Write the structure tokens for this entry.
Amino acid sequence: MKRIILIALFATMCTLCKAQMAQFQALYIYNFAKNIGWPSEDSNKDLVITVIGDNDLASELNKLAASKSIGIRKVVIKESATTNGLQKSDIVYLGESKSGQISSLISAQEGNKNLIVCGKKGLCSQGAGISFLSEGGKLMFEISNKNISKRGLQVSQKLLSLGTEVD
């Protein structure tokens, strides 16, 4: 009986941790969007964030999008199961469970002015602009100014200073 209770408690704690992680990641992504220099031709369009492979994060971003905007831009959240056939997105988030698809995502988004954010450490070396990592129980991120600039975007010094810059 004790074993069943411990397993149930552990499962509940893991679910809460995952939900909390999604909340923090959503806040980070929202702040990433505020600290990127977007093309001026997009200033009157919705800011589209596509989430691949992370329903919890998409749910948290939808909650934020319901009450917040990025400047005058309305935030729209889309979800996708794969990296294929994505419509125009300003931010594409690739969940940790889909990180094996980073190469196809980078290829599919070639020429698009968007920010690619990944849920797994080390993916900036494969073309992502920002990758989340967890150290000592803290959510952090690595950032590649080079990869972001290649996509026609500018990143603020403030954002660069908050992450671990890799290039």
Notes: The chain has five helices and ten strands. Strands lie at 36-37, 47-52, 69-70, 73-80, 91-94, 115-118, 130-135, 138-143, 154-155, 164-165. The helical segments are 2-34, 55-67, 102-108, 145-150, 157-162. The chain has a mean pLDDT of 88.
